[in-house]
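call fold(seq) -> tokens
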Amino acid sequence: MKIYGDAQSGNCYKIQLLAHHLDIAHTWVPINILEGDTQTGEFLAMNPAGKIPLLELDDGRHLSESNAILHYLANGSRLLPEDAWLKSVILSWQFFEQYSHEPNIAVARFINVYLGMPEERKADFQAKQLGGNKALAVMENHLSTQPFFAGNEMSIADISLYAYTHVADEGGFNLSKYPAISKWLNRISEHPKHLPMLKN
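ret:
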């Protein structure tokens, strides 16, 4: 099994973190999106969308989209319960992550960390602060009533949201304003199977 990704990307880190939790043996293949690694003919043959992370199975099949990969790899594990309701709750938070959280927090971080805050992107960076803080407020409200996103146990919903939230400060977000989120981040990072975000 191979995982193509950028270790500093939250979407790719999700897969690394899950693989570590579940002891999934794999080969990590570093990809540099800024150098065009995802736009080569070889990569596009595996994923025409030209995006990472990308999972390559031993039989040659490929699966893209971070949350889809999480569902595939976590199937039958403690991080993806069999209960239909809990599975749906997990999906709802993963859709929230991709539509409300990631487009603001991850993009603000990308502008600052990957691009180095170019002058022409400063207005875009500032515009992302409103949406990002709105998403964090939704998370804060939910986590003030329960320890994890799908009840009392950690799941792939938490892995999805942890990836970019724990580095949200790199996108200009002040997490000290969100005490429930801060406690949740600590619960994730203190898990014995936790893996910090690595370098490529």
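The first strand starts at residue 2 and ends at 5.
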